[in-house]
């Protein structure tokens, strides 16, 4: 059933799943309290993309909350939050010089220098969401896969771009061959295309199911993840090298260990299959909290796997043993509302704490801090990128306006907001929340 839905209406299904994940995460107090296996918590919604630096010291994550976060894997802490994209950050990566690349559903690619608050460069040209990116082996070209049915090549040397247009539906994944002379792309049209970059020709392999994900091994072998839950492997010329049934739900993300021995295949159902690439078998299946896993990446040690989930959390696993790693690490957050135990308003606020902090000293999250909230005009907090629609509104936050926001819902009260829809039906609960915010956010 999942494969059929993805085939017939991929964008509708994807948007539904994203929305469902966002609503279930923000609206449920259990989503905030369940921290036993969480390593890194900072996104205010599903973690759509993760990438690890070549030295294994830094993680870059992109979320449906429109932000990207640079993490220190030594201290398990967020070092910088990047706010530029106006929609989900679907793909991230590292350039050889240490700079970072983010690409989003807003059809833009941004290139960042660590520590800088604005991107060094913005690449524009796509007409629909960008679903994946790849960086050439020499670090001089970025390839992007888009739902506008095209692949684009962006030169970082002279700023030129090249458009590859043979896909007939959304393009979901792209990757360079190890020698950089060819490029592979996959899409909902069942097509795997091998682009020969020197002469501009291409070869097409049609596979049995819509293709959601792609990786290319160091020896050139091509691995695809499909809507039917299967991995299909091909040689560098597109010849069949076998397939593996990874699960029963669509595969949405793939990763390969640096030594090429293990493949991680994440399914929309929340399980991650660990596959021995040499013998083409599933070694084990990792099962998280039951929500979709949107992103996976291996650390350089070839056995530690990072996963980004629909609950906004990044987890660590030992891919060889299947064990979750380090529930006690520094990145595992203490309860931020522990000091307010017994406060009814704090209990109501638990549905908001995933995205908002109460103090300017806390690590930034996806939404703006609520410190000093009352008396502040909407969309006026310095340093936060608000939706353009909010900047023209004449709203000042007070107990009355906050109560109204949750009485009728953000979509009605602040149309154009990126805040997930949620309402508080009880007038008593709304009053408890506004009273809690009065003392918890006072500077």
TrEMBL record:
Keyword Heme on entry: yes
Alphabetized PANTHER family for the sequence: F-BOX AND WD REPEAT DOMAIN CONTAINING 7, WD40 REPEAT PROTEIN
Pfam families per record: Cytochrom_C, WD40
Chain ranges of the Cytochrome c domain: 340-441
Ranges occupied by WD repeats: 40-81, 82-112, 123-164, 164-205, 286-327
PROSITE patterns: CYTC, WD_REPEATS_2, WD_REPEATS_REGION
Transmembrane portions of the chain: none
Species of the source: Bradyrhizobium japonicum
UniProt keyword annotations, A-Z: Electron transport, Heme, Iron, Metal-binding, Repeat, Transport, WD repeat
Coiled-coil positions: none
Name of the protein in question: Cytochrome c
Keyword Iron in record: yes
């Amino acid at each position: 059933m999942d494969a059929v839905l993805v085939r017939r209406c991929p964008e509708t299904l994807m948007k539904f799943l994203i929305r469902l994940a966002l609503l279930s995460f923000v609206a449920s107090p259990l989503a905030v309290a369940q921290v036993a296996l969480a390593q890194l918590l900072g996104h205010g919604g599903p973690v759509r993309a993760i990438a690890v630096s070549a030295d294994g010291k830094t993680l870059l994550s992109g979320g449906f909350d429109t932000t990207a976060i640079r993490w220190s894997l030594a201290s398990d802490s967020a070092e910088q939050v990047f706010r530029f994209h106006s929609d989900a950050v679907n793909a991230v990566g590292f350039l050889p010089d240490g700079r970072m690349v983010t690409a989003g559903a807003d059809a833009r690619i941004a290139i960042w220098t660590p520590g800088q608050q604005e991107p060094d460069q913005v690449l524009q040209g796509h007409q629909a969401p960008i679903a994946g990116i790849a960086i050439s082996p020499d670090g001089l070209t970025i390839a992007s896969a888009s739902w506008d049915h095209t692949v684009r090549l962006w030169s970082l040397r002279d700023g030129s771009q090249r458009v590859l247009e043979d896909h007939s539906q959304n393009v979901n994944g792209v990757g360079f061959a190890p020698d950089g002379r060819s490029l592979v792309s996959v899409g909902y049209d069942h097509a795997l295309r091998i682009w020969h970059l020197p002469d501009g020709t291409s070869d097409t392999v049609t596979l049995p199911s819509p293709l959601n994900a792609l990786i290319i091994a160091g020896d050139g072998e091509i691995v695809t993840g499909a809507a039917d839950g299967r991995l299909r492997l091909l040689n560098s010329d597109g010849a069949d090298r076998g397939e593996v049934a990874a699960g029963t739900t669509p595969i949405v993300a793939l990763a390969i260990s640096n030594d090429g021995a293990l493949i991680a295949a994440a399914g929309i159902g929340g399980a991650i299959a660990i596959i021995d690439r040499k013998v083409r078998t599933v070694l084990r299946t990792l099962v998280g909290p039951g929500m979709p896993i949107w992103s996976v990446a291996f650390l350089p040690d070839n056995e530690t796997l990072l996963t980004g989930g629909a609950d906004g959390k990044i987890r660590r696993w030992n891919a060889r043993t299947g064990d979750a790693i380090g529930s006690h690490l520094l990145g595992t957050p203490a309860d931020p509302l522990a000091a307010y135990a017994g406060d009814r308003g704090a209990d109501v606020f638990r549905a908001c704490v995933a995205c908002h902090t109460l103090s300017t000293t806390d690590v930034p999250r996806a939404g703006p801090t609520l410190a000093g909230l009352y008396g502040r005009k909407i969309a006026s907090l310095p340093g936060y990128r608000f939706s353009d629609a909010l900047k023209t509104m004449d709203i000042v936050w007070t107990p009355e306006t906050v109560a109204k926001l949750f009485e009728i819902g953000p979509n009605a009260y602040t149309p154009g907001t990126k805040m997930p829809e949620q309402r508080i039906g009880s007038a008593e609960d709304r009053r408890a929340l506004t009273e809690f915010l009065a003392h918890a956010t006072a500077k």
